[in-house]
Amino acid sequence: MEKNLNTPPTQLYNIHYDMKALFDSLPYTKSFAKGEIIYHQGDIADSFYYIKKGKATIFMISPDGMEKTLNTASKGELIGEGAFFDHKPRVSSAKAVTASELTIIDKKILLDLIQKNPPIAFELLEILATRIRLLTTQLDSMTFMQADARIAKLLLDDMVDGKVSLTHEEIALTVGVSRITVTKALSRLSAQGILATHYRGIKILDKAGLEKICGEK
């Protein structure tokens, strides 16, 4: 049966369903323990990764040792593909947030996949373009938006089916504020009926309210 690679992504970073099925079928997997480094900033990338199970965080270390979280990726997402395609040293590191299983994709594996399934090349271009757009938006957010607005923007970007899986610490690291600031901001939003917090998760009750806070409406 002919594959349909035009199915829309189920969430902002997830790859398309049939492309996901292809990566799920690959046998080249490696297990990582919670907290284990997947790749290091500065490494030359000879492969990228598909998250088959678990969760990973992408972060940068500044010259003075400060850590900045760029993104948290979950099952069904790709990580490390930017440096793989431009043949430059990695600008970020990645580590497993939970015990994880990742599929390793090198040049030989990717060329074989593209040869057998040419539409994958266009899917990868779409993913790279989305990455650039989101990083640009994140930079604008960090530069121009106040803390509450930045947090609201992140919640909207990460929301799937009305839920956000980020912890207070992950939100704080991503938007560049303290954990206390995040807790206070979420408490204010909860008091306004915009969201409800629970253990390791946030339920969005009023999407339009969040959009208004971050200036999207």
Automatic annotation (TrEMBL):
PROSITE patterns linked: CNMP_BINDING_3 (PS50042), HTH_CRP_2 (PS51063)
Keywords for the protein's UniProt record, in alphabetical order: DNA-binding, Transcription, Transcription regulation
InterPro entries: cNMP-bd_dom, cNMP-bd_dom_sf, Env_Response_Regulators, HTH_CRP, RmlC-like_jellyroll, WH_DNA-bd_sf
SUPFAM superfamilies documented for this protein: cAMP-binding domain-like, Winged helix' DNA-binding domain
Residues in Cyclic nucleotide-binding domain copies: 22-131
Domain of life: Bacteria
Sequence ranges assigned to domain HTH crp-type in this UniProt record: 145-208
Pfam families in UniProt: cNMP_binding, HTH_Crp_2
PANTHER family registered for this protein in UniProt: CRP FAMILY TRANSCRIPTIONAL REGULATORY PROTEIN, HTH-TYPE TRANSCRIPTIONAL REGULATOR ARCR
Record-given protein name: Crp/Fnr family transcriptional regulator
